[in-house]
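To illustrate the input format used throughout this study, we show a single complete record. The first block contains the structure-token representation of the backbone; no residue identities are included at this stage. The design step must infer an amino acid for every position from geometry alone.
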């Protein structure tokens, strides 16, 4: 699979699908990304104790968490 650049919106979509109860393989297939990519972005959520099916979270909530888990490099 070719390398591709992800935006915050793309990554939030991974979280939204996973949180709705889809497996990592299902998320990867539906969004057209690799399973390893899905796993990479879900690792911080799982380490923080986030599990699918919890209280509803908006895309804005996910975006805030995303910024804390993946801070932008200096000079970006």
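Output of the design step:
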């Amino acid at each position: 699979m070719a390398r591709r650049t992800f935006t915050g919106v793309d990554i939030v979509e991974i979280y939204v699908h996973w949180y709705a109860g889809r497996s990592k393989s299902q998320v990867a297939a539906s969004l057209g990304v690799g399973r390893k990519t899905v796993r990479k972005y879900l690792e911080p959520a799982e380490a923080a104790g986030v599990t699918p099916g919890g209280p509803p979270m908006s895309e804005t909530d996910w975006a805030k968490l995303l910024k804390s888990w993946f801070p932008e490099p200096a000079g970006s």
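Structural context for interpreting the output: The chain has a mean pLDDT of 86. DSSP finds four helices and no strands in the chain.
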